[in-house]
Amino acid sequence: MAALDAPLDALALLAPPSGQALDEPLVALSLGLKSLARAVQFARDQGQDVERIPPGLYRLGGIFGHPCAMGPALGTTPARLVCGADDQGLQALLPYASRGLPLEQLSNSDIHLELRAEPLRRRYGEQLQRLAALAPMAMSQLSQDNPIFDRALGDTVHGMTDEALAIVQDLDKLRIDATASSQRSALEVEFGISFRSKSSWLAQVAEDVVANQAKAPALFWRLPKDASIASFRYQGSTRGRDAIQASLSGLAEGYTDHEGLPESLRKDLGSLIKLMFAFEPALMVSASGELTPRLGAEFGTGPLDAALRNQQKWSVIGFQAPSNPTKEALGLLARLINHASLKAVAKKNSLDPKWLPRAKLRPAPNLAPGAEQLELVLPAGLLDKADSTIKHKDFRLFVAVVPEGEITWLFSGPSEAVIRERAKMLLKGSGTLAERTDLELLKTEKAFSGGFLQARSVLGSLAPDISKKVLSVLDATQHHGETPAFFFASASKTGAGVEMHSSLVIPKELIQDGAAAAAAASF
Q: Where are the alpha helices (DSSP H) in 401-450?
């Protein structure tokens, strides 16, 4: 009797148009029927108590304890079966479920979930306004009795409160769509957030990026071929950045002043924050991958050492901007890490100063002319000072800035050799993403940001005992979890508003591996 090719609808009502408050949402489920008469006869044949009620509706005794009714419908089927969580839900939602919702132009996707903001505003608008009035109480709890910090805290709390209220007023709907695409042989999942107006910072930022969307740029295809995760991002919005930077700088300056740290440290920290917020390249690309073979002797034997050993990766970031600001930022970071005043802070908090991280910045002409390299050392004693029986070793991370004309490259890895090898390969143009044949979607899809990831790499970054089990299961699958999945972020204008959407494309090979892995793990 059921029309299996028609949509199966689920709906919930938070606040009726009358404005009457509900203790809990009214919920209903609606199923398309091929024939009302045949469905009624089938229900009677199954022993259901079927009662005819005007106008032309039939009420059932109940299905799985829930009240249900059948009646004529509009849309793709002549009739519908509607079941409510209770009698109130069935009575309130039956007309819309059978004659309104079937005519809604929601989506062509196989699965569509939509949350509309207007009922939420009607139901919870007053409560949100009252919560916003509690902002001064939050400020009093976080106050440090420092005028610089407290002023910045006030700006931050009030700014966040105003933004939250503006988002509530701008918001139109949230949606999730999922489609099994035969053209791409993949499952496509899209998340969307629509704004009906643009009074909030978030909606304005979304509108700004609409014009900055394109396919993966040429710089992206220069990234290393063996990357397990890679992405690109075009220039974002600078709207509101000065205000955010001023608040963050004020919080940092006020807190360090409250802690009695010297002016030189506060100045360096403020300069670093300013540089970070001034950084907005026209284009940025990034990639990371596993080290093969992995390092071993550089690590100790403790559980934290094992976790660090499990996270051995190389990474590279490229951006269309001069290298001097990045070099300056690394210099400031090194000075902050090595600042002598931090020893006093460590002692004040019962921490041995010898456990503090150390940093060293030096020229790296072996990488490229004008290159600089930062060595960050995490002392062995900091890894597990509670257990002296474990033989720890200092953990080292190397970060190098390599200029290449108008492009700046930032490499990182656990050894100088890794940095040197990666820089050499990239600058020579050998072994690049352009040589791969499994990334064609990135050559056609336009977005503000996008990229790919391999499930194997993500799962391999879990805790050592978990990742070992997961990877052993993936090893037994057909594609070993190495088929790339794609992700994109974009925005589009919608009349007076704007919509932000992000999507994930999961190829059938990855789904097959996931199903096989789940089946293997269940036995």
A: 416-428
Contact present, 323 and 317 (Cβ < 8 Å): no
Nearest 5°: the CA angle 492, 496, 502 is 25
Task: Give the 3-state secondary structure of residue 274.
Answer: helix
- Using CB atoms within 10 A of its CB, is residue 444 exposed (0-12), middle (13-18) or buried (19+)? exposed
pLDDT the model gives residue 177: 95
Q: Where are the beta strands (DSSP E) in 291-394?
A: 313-320, 358-363, 372-378
Q: Distance from CA of residue 116 to its chain's centroid?
A: 22
Using an 8 Å Cβ cutoff, are 403 and 370 in contact?
yes
CB atoms within 10 A of CB 386: 5
- DSSP letter at 295? P
Phi-psi group of 295: left, alpha or beta (phi > 0 → left; psi -120 to 50 → alpha; rest → beta): beta
Q: How far apart are CA 110 and CA 174, in angstroms?
A: 17
Tell which residue, 461, 441, 468, has the closest CA to residue 452.
Answer: 441
Which two three-digit tokens encode residue 505? 């494309």
250 with 277: CB under 8 angstroms? no
The torsion angle over the Cα atoms of residues 111, 186, 478 and 216, rounded to 10 degrees, is: -130
Asked if residue 123 lies in contact with residue 21, where contact means CB atoms within 8 angstroms, the answer is yes
Q: What amino acid is encoded at 109 in this protein?
A: S
Domain ranges of the chain: 9-105, 282-430
Q: Which residues contact 417 (CB under 8 A, 6 or more apart)?
A: none
Mean per-residue pLDDT pooled into runs of 10, the chain (523 residues): 86 71 83 94 91 89 88 94 92 92 87 90 81 78 87 90 92 95 90 96 94 95 96 91 91 90 92 90 93 59 60 89 94 94 82 86 95 90 58 82 96 91 92 95 96 87 71 84 95 93 95 83 55
